[in-house]
Amino acid sequence: MSFPLPRFSAFLAGLLLFLSQSSMADPGDLLINYEYDAANSFNQGVAAVIKVEKGRPQTGLINREGEMLFGPEPNTEIHDFNDGLAPVLKDIRWGFINTRGEKVIDPQFSKVMHFHNALAAVMKDGHWGYINQAGDWQIPPRFTQAGHFHDGLASVNLDGLWGYVNKQGDWIIKAQYQDARMFSQELAAVENEQGWGYINKENQLVIAAQFERALDFSDGLAIVNQGQDWWFIKADGSALSDKRYDKVLPFREGLAVVVKQGRYGYINTKGDEVITPSMDNAWSFNEGMGRIEMDARVGYVNKSGKMVIPPQFKWGHSFTEGLAAVTIDYWKYGYINKDGVMMIEPRFDDAQPFHDGMARVQSQGRWGYISRD
Predict the structure, then answer these.
(1) Distances (CA, A) of 373 to 26, 56, 89, 338
(2) Domain-wise residue ranges, the chain
(3) Which helix (H) or strand (E) element contains residue 21?
């Protein structure tokens, strides 16, 4: 029996559509089998994994198809990627690899930091300097300690004192401080004999040294400390509000965790308490949801302080890519959406947040990866 051409074309199109749909991964589908003894989250399309063979851990790097791009090799560590490169430790020396698993900078340094703004601080022969992404010295090693470049400057230590250099290695602010943090929003926290304050790039002390601790500015606010009190200040040095807390976390998505007498709450960037400290625990907001804990149960609040998913989980992670890994009994983990609906049924011994459309999950002591879509 033969089909008329139009009907056959429609049938073939439908068959191809069915096959393509059936080959697509659904949420929770196992994309990379349970074959690793340890595994990191995917970052820039790759993930570091570990297999133990004959009692020795072997570290490798896989892509989203589960193909081994690097290794696995013994006596090796791979850290997270930043600016397209990741620190890799081989035996006792550090180098860098790219997301194709290629060693672009051979292991030769005793210590390294991640690349930021195309430069990385590295230590060789007991001194810190900066290299570019080709592995060439941008600033030869001569510092006792070194930080990341940010806003065009990096804090460095020379013979026990801190100052700032530019990307050519020129001193912009000569070493003179007991400690120094990175520039952020044109200000940097520095410590002198009076305590911590803030300078601008002309080395003018624009916020007097008066704090026991001072952190970087972000969204126009910075965390400072005096005695048992922690609070936020503005760029002019004035306090965000008259309230003081036992602990605060940096603002994220316009809200910050604050702690008073062991109770957790949230404030907004005006200093108003969106949720008065009353919870057993709280974590920074992510994707518009705050993870909280009450009576040993995890739930979630929105930015207005409304409890949108009541505390009911023995444990839960923050939301990423629209889902959060949770467990009701510590035995099996699944994933909920922002309405609290279980989208991926609990069947994992452990489950971690989604990154790059994949999440690492554990079954019977081995790690694999599932799909988000």
Answers:
(1) 5, 35, 34, 16
(2) 43-143
(3) helix 5-23
